[in-house]
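Backbone-to-sequence.
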């Protein structure tokens, strides 16, 4: 144990001052960066340009999506999980070289305007998620701010894998521009190698993907009811129970956190200015600022549910069942799922607190606190919702389609990682509303984080990881995000 303690102390000493001089709690959290970050031969990062300065690490590390199940092979590197966690894992800890390399490695795989869900070295990547590209772009902008590189990363060379038959090298800013342009013009495509070779459970129509932007509202949209393009991505797999090929939470249409992420990215890209990011216009939507303003002008009109009458602009106000919330999605194929209370708008309010009326935001966060906040995480669905199933068991072999093979993965069990966004949102919005609200937010944050610290101190993973999710019987495993 003495050797282990010495190694931990040495690792922490090499991190940012915030970590190396921080509390025991901060240091324990930072150890997650050490155990999740490594170069794994079975899960390589795509090639990086030798012209990079400073030169990339050889071999370059990747982030494990989870321990122990998502640590090697094609299941190790997930675009979404990587870029949700990159800020805490590598930027806050001061590991900027690893962060840069991972950002640029994933950039090389951009295809269909998207960053892959499963990376698998790049050549076998799956482009079946709509949110990873926005988490990636958010990570780039956070890198620029926290690494204080004055935007140099935008000029760094990216080795592209999919522009044609041969590899092409281009600056990161051009890759970012391509991602935005594809969304702005819209695209429908079918996954390469669609079928049981890449997904033994998905129905045929699930392999058909779509992304686009609503020109009137500026909202990014995509997906269909047979695929699941956000982090709530559980695909039914039980033929016996009849849920095989049916996503539990497809969240197609405009997902609230993707709208928030896209707004925050467009706003911050515009703030960089033309010298750092030269693509300040996106046809046919106009300037980055124009697109961002359009999203902001429409957000409350379509997403804020302040009364039983629904949103200001609402196709099905009669579906309203919870008030003082933001809709989870807009124009989903199942319609009623738009109105479900889930934790996803906490992400929007954390990265873009200025997108909405702060008093609306405060009320919605208090609703989330009262309805979803548990001992460690946020429930993935309102416990009063008819579809709520709080106890997760992936080995469930019953004939209940709502539970079989863990179909309720995101239908009630508490997940821990969204709590960070909830607390960030609560603190930011509280400060906008007033001093009493801010002090209330500080009190909530202290209480929640105290429980996290207690959990870390008793963690079987040597006090280095928080559980990814918990249910009413406190089952769970551990993930980086």
């Amino acid at each position: 144990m003495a050797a282990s303690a010495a190694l931990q102390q040495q690792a922490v000493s090499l991190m940012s001052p915030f970590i190396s001089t921080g509390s025991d709690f901060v240091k324990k959290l930072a150890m997650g960066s050490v155990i999740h970050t490594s170069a794994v031969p079975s899960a390589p990062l795509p090639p990086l340009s030798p012209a990079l300065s400073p030169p990339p690490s050889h071999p370059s590390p990747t982030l494990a999506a989870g321990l122990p199940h998502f640590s090697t092979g094609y299941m190790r590197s997930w675009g979404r999980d990587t870029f949700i966690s990159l800020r805490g894992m590598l930027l806050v800890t001061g590991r900027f070289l690893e962060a840069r390399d991972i950002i640029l490695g994933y950039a090389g795989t951009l295809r269909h305007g998207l960053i892959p869900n499963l990376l698998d070295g790049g050549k076998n990547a799956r482009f079946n998620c709509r949110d990873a590209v926005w988490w990636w772009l958010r990570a780039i902008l956070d890198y620029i701010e926290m690494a204080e590189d004055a935007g140099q990363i935008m000029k760094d060379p990216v080795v592209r894998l999919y522009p044609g038959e041969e590899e092409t090298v281009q600056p990161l800013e051009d890759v970012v521009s391509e991602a935005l342009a594809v969304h702005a013009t819209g695209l429908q495509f079918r996954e390469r190698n669609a079928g049981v070779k890449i997904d033994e459970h998905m129905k045929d129509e699930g392999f058909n993907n779509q992304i686009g932007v609503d020109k009137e509202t500026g909202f990014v949209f995509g997906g269909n009811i047979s695929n699941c393009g956000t982090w709530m991505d559980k695909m039914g797999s039980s033929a016996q129970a009849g849920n095989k090929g049916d996503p539990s939470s497809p969240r197609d249409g405009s997902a609230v956190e993707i709208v928030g992420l896209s707004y925050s990215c467009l706003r911050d890209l515009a703030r960089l200015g033309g010298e750092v990011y030269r693509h300040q216009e996106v046809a046919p939507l106009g300037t980055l600022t124009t697109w961002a303003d359009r999203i902001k002008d429409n957000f409350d009109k379509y997403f804020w549910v302040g009364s039983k009458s629904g949103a200001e602009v609402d196709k099905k106000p009669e579906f309203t069942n919870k008030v003082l919330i933001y809709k989870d999605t807009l124009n989903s194929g199942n319609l009623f799922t738009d109105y479900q209370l889930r934790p996803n708008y906490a992400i929007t309010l954390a990265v873009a607190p200025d997108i909405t009326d702060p008093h609306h935001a405060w009320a919605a966060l208090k609703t989330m606190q009262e309805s979803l906040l548990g001992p460690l995480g946020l429930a993935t669905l309102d416990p009063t919702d008819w579809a709520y199933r709080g106890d997760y068991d992936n080995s469930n072999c019953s004939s209940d389609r709502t539970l079989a093979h863990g179909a309720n993965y995101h239908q009630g069990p508490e997940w821990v990682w969204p709590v960070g966004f909830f607390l960030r949102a609560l603190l930011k919005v509280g400060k906008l509303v007033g001093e009493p609200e801010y002090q209330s937010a500080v009190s909530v944050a202290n209480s929640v984080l105290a429980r996290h610290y207690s959990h870390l101190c008793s963690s079987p993973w040597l006090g280095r990881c928080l559980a990814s999710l918990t249910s009413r019987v406190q089952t769970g495993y551990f993930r980086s995000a």
